[in-house]
Structure formats: structure tokens, C-alpha cells
Amino acid sequence: MDHAGTLALFDRDLRAGARPDGPGARVERTGEVVRQVASAQGWNGVVWSDLDEAGADAAIAEQIAYFTGLGLEFEWKLYGHDRPVDLGQRLGAAGFTAGPRETLMIGEVVGLTLDADPPEGIRVRPVTDRAGVDLVADVHEKAFGTDSSWLRHQLLARLTADPDSVVAVVALAGDEPVSAARMELVPGTRFAGLWGGGTVEAWRGRGIYRTLVAHRARAAADRGYRYLQVDASSRSRPILERLGFAALSTTTPYVYVPRRAPCTGPARDVTSGAVRSVARA
């Protein structure tokens, strides 16, 4: 795989040319910034920028003013190769909080190891309805320790409105959901993204995550996608490398939370649209 060429293609197709990630979301380009705007239950943030030192601070201020005016938290999804080189420091100085850094990994489907069968006693179930979405959300809460009401809403809406744009699976031990993940398909590109892979702590280290990666990779191949993209944690990176993924950059979520306006009447929480980086990871 041509690493530099693949990274440039990723930036062009999935960032500069981003598409809305679900019903009700829209993608806007303003100057050298591409952002997604969604409801309070969706993902709001900057997916791409091409800035220089002279204009970076003004562009940051513009996005803060825009999303604050909507009463929304938002994420600036910063990649390690973005310009200027001190963009992360500028975001921090402007009031953003950095989340955990992850590794952008991309694999060419034809070169991946896809023969990972489920461990004994584990079966993989496709998710197509509300009951399946509830299982995915339950796993998410146990694996990551966070509220998953946003995931229930977002995944169900996507399965309902455009079921061909997402593949979701859950791994069951008997009737107990122990791992879950999804794959988002981007029509018109060669990329599919692997997101939300999580395993309940007691079931980690048994090869279930690897199984769900291989399952989704085969589904991507069947649909004609060439590349799989993952924002990998330090825990999942070694597994993905063994499957044939390559590390091409890093990605760090910088989250901005608008301050509450002074209360002069009935209380109104203007920060209820919480951006959850794990929604895209």
C-alpha cells in the first residue's frame, strides 16, 4: 500500500469531501474548514481544515462563534499531519480540551487476514432492528463506562433511513451480549470505517474483537470497498497491525464546551448537545 497516496486519498474523500454521517446532519464548507452540523444527539464538529499560521486563530474563533451560537458542544478532529504544526496548541489556548490520542490505521481489504473465526461459545449476530441496537448500546455502556443514549438514537436512525450505509454486529455468549461494533460505508469512495468496537472487560483477550474486525472486513469486501479505516486505541492497534493494518497518522479529539449564558429566566442548558468522540471511534 502506498502510505502517502492512501493518506492523501483519505483526506480528500473522507475529510475535505465529507458526507453527513446520518439523517438530519449536514456538511458545510466555510473558508478552509469543513464541518458537520447535526442535532444535539448527533456528532457536531470540524472534520477537515487546511490552515496556515496567519489564518488559523481566526478560523478557530469563527467555529467557536458558530457552534456556540447554536448552543452546541463540538469537536475539532485534529490529525497529526494537519497544518499548521501547532494547531493543537492553538486549539488548547482557545478553550478546547484534548481527548486521548488515537492512531489512524488503514488496511487494504485484499491484504488483510480475514480468517478469524469466533472463539468457542461465541456467535456473531447482525444488528438490523431496535432490539439489536439495544444490545449494541448495552455492550457500549459496559465496555466504555459511558452513557449510550446517543448511540441508540443515531444507530437506529441510520438503520431505519439508510440500512445500506451501516453494518452493525454484536457478539453473544449464549444470550449475553459481550462485544459489539459497527462499520460505516461511504458511497462514492473506496473507504469503509470501523467504529465503536468494544468488548466487556471480562471477555477481553479471547479474540472476539479480532473476529468482529474480520467479519466487517469481509462485509466491506463483498460490497466492493478497497480500504478499511480505524481510529485505533493503544489496546486495539496491535490487533489491527497483526491483521494487516498500517499506521498512517494520529487523531486527537479537541472538544469545545460553550459556557452557560447567565440565567435571567427559566434555566436552559445550552450544552446539552454533548459531543462524544467515541461516537466516531
Largest sheet: 12 strands, mixed
Tell me the span between the first and last alpha carbons: 23 Å
Strand content: 25-35%
| Count of beta strands | 12
The CATH topology of the largest domain comes to Aminopeptidase
Please name the CATH architecture of the largest domain.
3-Layer(aba) Sandwich
Low-confidence blocks of residues: 261-281
> What is the CATH homology-level superfamily of the largest domain?
Gcn5-related N-acetyltransferase (GNAT)
Give the class from helix and strand content and strand pairing.
alpha+beta
Which geometry do the CA atoms define? globular
Helical residues, percent: 25-40%
CATH class of the largest domain: Alpha Beta
Q: Can you count the helices?
A: 7
Whole-angstrom Rg: 19 Å
Q: How do the SSEs run, as a string of H and E?
A: HEEEHEHEEEHHEEEHEHE
| Rounded mean pLDDT score | 91
Instruction: Quickly count the domains.
Output: 2
Characterization of the model:
The protein is of the alpha+beta class and 281 residues long. It folds into two domains: 3-102 and 250-280, 3-Layer(aba) Sandwich (Aminopeptidase), CATH 3.40.630; 108-249, Aminopeptidase (3-Layer(aba) Sandwich). Helices cover 30% and strands 28% of the residues. Strands 1, 2, 3, 4, 5, 6, 7, 8, 9, 10, 11 and 12 form a twelve-stranded mixed sheet that branches. A hairpin with a 7-residue loop joins strand 2 and strand 3. It is globular and about 55 Å long. The two termini are 23 Å apart. The model is unreliable at 261-281 (pLDDT under 50).
